[in-house]
Amino acid sequence: MTKGALLIARNNSQVDYVKQAAFCANRIVQHLDIPVSLITDSAEYAEQFDVFDNVIEIQNQNNYHHKNYNDGLWSRTTLEFKNTSRCDVYELTPYDQTLLMDTDVILGNDHMKHVFAQQNDLLLYKDATELSNWRDLSEFDYISPNSIDFYWATVVYFNKSKITKTFFDLVKHIQENWFHYRNLYQIKNATFRNDFAFSIAVHIMNGYTQNKFVGKMPGTLYYTLDADVCHNINENRFQFLIEKQTSDGYFPAVTNNSTVHIMNKFSLNRVIDES
Amino acid sequence: MSLNFTIFAQNSTYDYVQQASLAAMSIRLTNPDSKICLITNDTVPEKYAQLFEHVVPIPFGDKSKNTTWKIENRWKIYHATPFEETAVIDSDMLVLNDLSHWKTALDKHDLYYVNKVQTYRGEWADNTYYRKSFRNHNLPNLYAGFHWFKRCDFSHNFYKWLELVMNNWELFYGQYAGGKYFQKFPSIDVSSAIVCKILQIENVITNDATFPTFTHMKLKSQGWNKLYVDNWQEQVGTYLDNDCNLTIGNFRQQGIFHYTEKSFCNDNIISTYERKLGI
Fold first, then answer.
1. In degrees rounded to 5, what are phi and psi of residue A162?
2. By the 8 A CB rule, do B91 and B124 touch?
3. What is the number of H-type helices and E-type strands within chain B?
4. Can you state the percent helix, strand and coil of chain B, rounding each to 5?
5. Domains in chain A: boundaries
6. Does A259 score more than 70 pLDDT?
7. Are the CB atoms for B169 and B191 separated by under 8 Å?
8. Do B236 and A145 touch (CB under 8 A)?
9. pLDDT of B165-223, one tens digit each?
10. What is the rounded distance in angstroms from the CA atom of residue B272 to the CA atom of residue B242?
11. Which of B90, B198, B209, B216 shows the shortest CA–CA distance to B147?
12. A3-220 domain in CATH 3.10.450?
């Protein structure tokens, strides 16, 4: 059984996801000691980074949309958001056991190595811990107020099996029929979001009930929003500036030996450049 | 081995016999080997009478002549049902699955009460809003909406105490459920909890098992953060397909569904069950 991590990086005009992916991959190799493959539409550029076991090229499709990217509290820009390749990972992964991660998930420990020594075909985080401790995070409980449980598609473990193939086929179907599913599950925002598609697919695979189709990822996934700023990454000590409740500034926060999903891509890339 | 069911229905301004008939149709569909007893003094329409193996009158007179909720006679269920062992369900419930596997769990008890219920999402419900007297007076969190008994000395004793508490509810509620949240009317849940506390049998008649339980559609127990409506049917949709599979919002319902709102038992729901059963 082959095992490895898989990242997806599709650059837009301002965010270098490939560079993030290389940084992320180095941390994966360091903490989990597994090979890392990259799915990208910038293969030639990605080949410059020698950390990747495989660079899997996909065509630069035009099926993207736009969303707001914040860089802390006082900078916002609207950019292309290319998030439509995630449903293809089952076909594209070179591994029997795959740890699929966003490029902005930065490992601070080896907890995720346990995914390769358990029996579930599919693991997701249902809960993650946000660092501000004051925000209303009910949007991460359910995908809409009356609807189904929210699951993070940020980190996904899956093995090659008939049932996980069905799951990813279902995610693809939901993506292709997003208008319908968005209405069915009362999602206000029109932008396609993998978290929602994965959550809906889990719900369907559970027979439209609470059930146990998906297992829990090991350890705690922390996250900061893009209104926060990643200030420094020094080994496994991460420093952040977190938005104050009054939104007129930041307070400092530090994590040690924790894995953090850093949503402010600009600040993460600045930290990578400085490292 | 199938469960036998007993349903109590006493019409007031509302037709509880119709609710009980709908409940019986749902049992017939999902638990065809179950026997059903209806306890009522009201007329059962001919087409529904066939659903019940037994239709028996409420014994010992009518204790609720002057009340609208008609709760005062509920302690008589034990004495009226012809079954040696039976599940008792509220009339405003649907049974959506074969529950015969519950029998194994229930057989370990002479008397069993549900002590936690679920939301339409299948999560454990927080019923604090409706159960202040339970919390404030440390009463066992029992739900009579589904309970079970075998005819035996233990159950007989329990129901004799239940009779005593319900017939003297002001006295017992003042002592065991009084103070700020003193209840102004009797309830079968509070009465059962008081009896349980007096007899100190909580560990005997209930436990933390994940089933039996039921989905309790009390509006403020569904985990909704923001409510702008007065009933749950305005908050989420109800979808009953031609095979009587029930979906609430995005969730397929299973087990026992306690719809609580009378308007749920409408012509569409009833006629769907009637068509499915050929009634």
1. -60, -40
2. no
3. 10, 12
4. 35, 15, 45
5. 3-220
6. yes
7. yes
8. no
9. 999 998 999 899 875 566 778 899 999 999 999 999 999 999 988 899 999 999 999 99
10. 6
11. B90
12. no
Token pair recorded at residue A258:
């924790």
Residues in A touching B235 (Cβ below 8 Å): 146
Q: What is the pLDDT of residue B182?
A: 66
Task: Judge residue A227's burial from the number of C-beta atoms within 10 Å of its C-beta, 0-12 exposed, 13-18 middle, 19 or more buried.
Answer: buried
- For residue B193, give the H/E element and its range: helix B188-199
In B16-152, alpha helices (H):
16-30, 46-49, 77-80, 102-106, 132-136
Structure tokens at B152: 């035996």
Interchain proximity A138–B225, CB inside 8 Å: yes
pLDDT at B257 over 80: yes
Count of CB pairs separated by less than 8 Å, A with B? 30
A1-18 pLDDT tens trace: 999 999 999 998 899 999
Beta-ladder partners of A124: A156, A216
Q: Please give the domain boundaries of chain B with CATH numbers for all domains.
A: 5-277 (3.90.550.10)
Tally of CA atoms within 13 A in the half-sphere of B218 that contains its CB:
16
Give the Å distances, CA to CA, from B181 to A267, B67, B137, B192.
Answer: 54, 21, 9, 17
Of the candidates B127, B151, B153, the one whose C-alpha atom is nearest the C-alpha of residue B219 is B127
SS3 readout for A166-228: HHHHHHHHHHHCHHHHHHHCCCCCCCCCHHHHHHHHHHHHCCCCCCCCCEECCCCEEEECCCC
CB contact under 8 A, A210 and B122: yes
- Cβ distance A184 to B254 less than 8 Å, yes or no, reads no
**Rounded distance between C-alpha atoms, residue A112 and residue A220, angstroms:** 10
* A74 token code pair: 């006082």
**The two structure tokens encoding residue B251:** 């969730």
What's the Rg (C-alpha) of chain A?
18
